[in-house]
Amino acid sequence: MFIPPRCPHRHCRQHVEPEPNFFARHGKYFASCRPRPIPRFRCKTCKRTFSRQTFRADYRDHRPGLNCRLLGLLNSGVGLRQSSRLLGLSRRCTELKFRKLARHLRRLNLNLQTNLPLGSILQFDEFETYEGRRNTRPVSVPILIERKSRFVIWAESASIRPHGRMSRQRLRAIQQEEERTGPRRNNSARGVVRTLKRATALLPEDAVVCLETDQKPTYPIHARIVFAGRKLIHSRTNSELARLTWNPLFPINHTEAMLRDLLGRTRRQSWLASKRRRYLDLGLQMWIAYRNLVRRRFNFDDSTPAQLVGALDRRLRLGELVSWRQDWGRKSIHPLSRRGSSIRDWAARRTSSSPADHTEPSQFLQKPGTKSATTA
Q1: In angstroms, rounded to a whole number, what is the distance separating the alpha carbons of residues 73 and 69?
Q2: Measured between alpha carbons, how far is 285 from 110 in angstroms, rounded to an integer?
Q3: Closest CA to 348 of 149, 146, 114
Q4: Which helix (H) or strand (E) holds 255?
């Protein structure tokens, strides 16, 4: 039986620190999109009513039954326009559903993140895409993963200046762009630092930070700034090596290839390009949640990346992925809960069994084209 974790009305005293039995049951109602009746409640403090649906991610949604189908299409390389045709929705409705789902999944992925196992190895890389127009508005996407589990810790976009071969037509297009919006800023360094900082909260303070990147000259500088005061083992590999399975950076390269294939916004030449960078970030967060919580690490594997790092006990189904609202941080309802238990309480009740050991004895053996550096 569902137990509301708090009063959903922000000005009520029971919203932040709810007391036991702060509510009274207030009947039920039937909705055409639900097979069972939805219970209603009344807060004893503010006397306002609410229902179980108030805590759902599809609260006040039109046609909530299409959320899972839309999520599956968008994570399979299908664009918004084709998704709207397949689902019988207007393009505007599909856009709004995508934005709401992506913001919800960003919160869910952050709420479920937990400390990485001892011996975890981080891999970091950047790839390029664009927003609006390919030859004038390029974008860099830094991405950080845990190597063995393929758990995607973070990815975001950052604007960069146009570079490469400059034809007359491209120079003229860049000049017109700058006259309209001003000179394009290079925020690549800021994006790299922001992405690497996401790992600091997931690693114990006394843990050795093992980082693998390519040989871009700025990466050692950014790594020393982000992981200052920690022992850092930074392994660098030549990016010109063949991207085969023996390449030390194969896990991050494979993750980027999968991302380009399943998220059409990141392809090099595509009609599905994001018109604005903030929507590209929403698409990235949607794919990260799908990759970590739903999709298996490999086709022959039974576990998701989130299971391998100890964040979840089992795979999430698409319906569970878009189940409960996640706008209350760790106090939000856990996606696997049916009674309304929060993520914080769920984690406290979990067994103390540790996930599989991620340590690999030969993790930093010298390989062709590899350089190692250790800093304290």
Answers
A1: 6
A2: 10
A3: 114
A4: helix 250-262
Residue 112 has a pLDDT of 93
Which of 326, 336, 339 has the alpha carbon at shortest distance from 56? 326
Given a cut of 90, whether residue 94 has pLDDT beyond it is yes
C-alpha 211/C-alpha 74 separation (Å) is: 31
* Half-sphere exposure of residue 280: CA atoms within 13 angstroms, side-chain side: 28
User: What whole-number distance in Å separates Cα of residue 345 and Cα of residue 322?
Assistant: 20
Write out the two tokens for 185. 């800023």
Instruction: List the end-to-end C-alpha distance of the chain, in Å, as a whole number.
Output: 53
pTM, two decimal places: 0.88
* Dihedral, CA of residue 138, residue 200, residue 233 and residue 124, to nearest 10: -20
- Which band of pLDDT confidence, cut at 50, 70 and 90, is reported for residue 24? very high
Displacement of CA 267 from its chain's centroid (Å): 18
Q: Write the CA distances from 157 to 44, 53, 121, 225, integer angstroms.
A: 46, 34, 23, 20
Q: How many CB atoms lie within 10 A of CB 346?
A: 18
Strand order in the sheet with 49-51: 23-29, 38-43, 49-51
CA dist., res. 150 & res. 255, Å (int): 8
Average pLDDT over residues 181-206: 92
**Listed residue (288, 322, 294, 309) closest to 156, CA to CA:** 288
Q: In the chain, how long is the greatest CA-to-CA distance?
A: 72
Ramachandran angles phi, psi of 211, nearest 5°? -125, 135
